[in-house]
Specification:
Blueprint: E1 3-10, E2 16-20, E3 23-28, E4 31-36, E5 43-47, E6 50-58, H1 60-81, E7 84-91, E8 98-102, E9 105-109, E10 118-121, E11 127-131, E12 134-139, H2 142-155, E13 169-174
């Protein structure tokens, strides 16, 4: 059954939004975030202080895409007010690993005694702080912060060894909104 579907999101006070060339950009007090939003057979309009996602004859797939984009837009609004913070922790059982920040990447030396350092990509607009074994990833953009945390965690993935014995690695300890 195909029905008309409309989702409305209220724009918070002090936030200005623009939708141009399938890119939704919102800014507030010097912080600007943008995201590509493209939903087939649906439209995005900004009227007054509301963002309206509208579909004339929506099916369940369009409904899912509209709801997903509503969540992305809400994350953009939340990111304008506060930074998203991910906490990670490095655990070494066998060899002491060393962490070093370089522009655009985190270098992990001596992981499991390996001679070749492992690298994790840090996305733009993301700040990474290393204090001993604690790693903090912060950004106004939720996707970039989460992807950077995942890159760091994945860089220390152990292959071809027993995970019960080799528990070394960098693990996510806390993420925004849910903790762990």
């Amino acid at each position: 059954m195909k029905t008309k579907m409309t989702e409305k999101i209220e724009i918070p006070s002090g936030v200005s939004c623009v939708y141009h060339d399938k890119t939704f950009t919102c800014s507030k007090s010097g912080v600007s975030l943008s995201r590509r939003i493209e939903i087939p057979r649906a439209s995005l309009l900004i009227k007054g202080n509301e963002v309206i996602l509208d579909s004339e004859k929506g099916n369940k797939n369009q409904f899912k895409m509209i709801k997903s984009n509503v969540a992305h837009i809400k994350n953009l609004f939340q990111g304008l007010n506060e930074k998203f913070v991910y906490s990670l922790e490095a655990c070494n059982v066998h060899f002491p690993m060393t962490l070093k920040l370089e522009p655009g990447k985190l270098i992990i030396n001596n992981f499991l005694g390996e001679k070749v350092p492992r690298k994790a990509v840090i996305l733009p607009d993301v700040t990474v702080d290393v204090k001993g074994v604690k790693i903090t990833v912060t950004s106004h953009n939720r996707e970039h912060a989460g992807q950077t945390a995942a890159n760091i965690e994945k860089a220390t993935k152990i292959r071809n060894r027993d995970r019960r014995i080799f528990q070394d690695g960098i693990y996510l300890v806390e993420r925004p909104g849910r903790g762990m």
